[in-house]
């Protein structure tokens, strides 16, 4: 069985900088404050599907 990857997209510029493994137990979309190399600052990154 293959591991599914989920991308985290920057809320400011929309670039998908990070990937995480999918968690079936999580019901809401993940929002994490991470560094965006395109914006040059820390922004909210939201889980995309």
From TrEMBL:
Gene Ontology terms: biological process: translation
InterPro entries, alphabetized: Ribosomal_bL33 (IPR001705), Ribosomal_bL33_sf (IPR038584), Ribosomal_zn-bd (IPR011332)
GO cellular component labels: cytoplasm; ribonucleoprotein complex; ribosome
Pfam families: Ribosomal_L33
Domain of life: Bacteria
Keyword tags: Ribonucleoprotein, Ribosomal protein
Molecular function in Gene Ontology: structural constituent of ribosome
Annotated family: Belongs to the bacterial ribosomal protein bL33 family.
Stated name of the protein: Large ribosomal subunit protein bL33
Gene: rpmG
């Amino acid at each position: 069985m293959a591991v599914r990857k989920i991308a985290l997209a920057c809320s400011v510029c929309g670039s998908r900088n990070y990937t995480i493994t999918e968690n079936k137990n999580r019901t809401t979309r993940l929002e994490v404050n991470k560094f965006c190399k395109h914006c040059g600052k820390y922004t909210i990154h939201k889980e995309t599907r």
